[in-house]
C-alpha cells in the first residue's frame, strides 16, 4: 500500500468514495450527493488552509481511500484542535487502509504542532470506534440523537487523542 498527498486528478475517485459513503453509510450525515465541483471546492479549501488530504492506494495505483483533517470549530480558542475523517472503498474496508491513513494523520497533526485530534463517529460504527481506540483515542462524549439519516435518529460518539503535553498558548485579545 502506498500513501501520498492527494492531487487534483484524484478528485473523481475521492468523489466516488465520498458519494458511496453518503448513499450507503451513516458516516456522513447528509443525503445530498456532491458534484465534482463540490469536491474541488473542498480540496481547494483544505489545501489553502494547509491541511493534508492523504490517499491510500494499492500497488496498481487504485485509490482505496482517503483521510484528511481540518478545523474543529472556527473560534480562535480551537486553533490547536482538529477534526479528522477517513473514508475507505467498501471492498477495501478492514484491510489496513483506514489504519494506515489514521496513523499518517496523527503523525502529521503532531508535526504541525496541533494539540488534539477529534473523531466524530456514528455510534453504531463499532469498527471505527475500535480502530480509534487502538491508536489511543478515548471516548470523551456521546451525543444522543443529534443527527438523522435513513429514517432513524443517529447518536454521535466523540473520540479525542491528545497529541502532546504542550502548555496552553499565551492568552491574547484579538482587536
TrEMBL record:
<protein>
    <submittedName>
        <fullName>N-acyltransferase YncA</fullName>
        <ecNumber>2.3.1.-</ecNumber>
    </submittedName>
</protein>
<feature type="domain" description="N-acetyltransferase">
    <location>
        <begin position="1"/>
        <end position="159"/>
    </location>
</feature>
<dbReference type="Pfam" id="PF00583">
    <property type="entry name" value="Acetyltransf_1"/>
</dbReference>
<dbReference type="InterPro" id="IPR000182">
    <property type="entry name" value="GNAT_dom"/>
</dbReference>
<keyword id="KW-0808">Transferase</keyword>
<dbReference type="GO" id="GO:0016747">
    <property type="term" value="F:acyltransferase activity, transferring groups other than amino-acyl groups"/>
</dbReference>
<dbReference type="InterPro" id="IPR016181">
    <property type="entry name" value="Acyl_CoA_acyltransferase"/>
</dbReference>
<keyword id="KW-0012">Acyltransferase</keyword>
